[in-house]
Amino acid sequence: MRALTVRQPWAGAIAYAGKNIENRVQRWSYRGPVLIHSGATIDRAARKHPPLAAVIRGLQLDQRAVIAVARIVDCHADDGECTPWSLPGHYHYVLTDVTPLPLPVPHERGQLGLWIPPAELVARVRLQLDDGTAARLLDEEGF
User: Fold this and answer.
1) 78 and 93 Cβ atoms separated by less than 8 Å
2) What are the backbone dihedrals phi and psi of residue 94, each rounded to the nearest 5 degrees, phi first?
3) From the first residue on, what is the mean pLDDT of each consecutive set of 10 residues in the chain (143 residues)?
4) Which of 41, 46, 65, 117 could disulfide-link to 104, CB 3.0 to 4.6 Å?
5) Predicted TM-score of the model (pTM)
6) How far is CA 55 from each of CA 46, 50, 95, 99, rounded to the nearest angstrom?
């Protein structure tokens, strides 16, 4: 299990607007379940990205909280525009099974890149998932 801190409104787009690619300049070998943690800052320049501009109104932009659970299943280098969410010159991490949480789970500290969430945070997230979703996304690593 890992967590990934994503600035808003990108984190909200993953949770609520079908953004199934996370763009990063570094490459990781990790594949598996990931908590989507909304960071402390808002990316004001994001409004210039056409798919995001179309959905940003009305998105709940919680900060410093886990707002969804997903699975990283693949990563590929920029190959043009694989989706409207892809950014040129970045690695594209493919997200599946994105499941927004009914309520954000506050967690003040994220960090760049993937990080290992404390067990108590994973337990608080688990409480918001039905048993089937929790088993599918969290239990493979014993959480």
Assistant:
1) no
2) -90, 125
3) 94 92 93 96 81 70 95 90 84 96 94 91 95 82 48
4) 65
5) 0.91
6) 11, 9, 19, 18
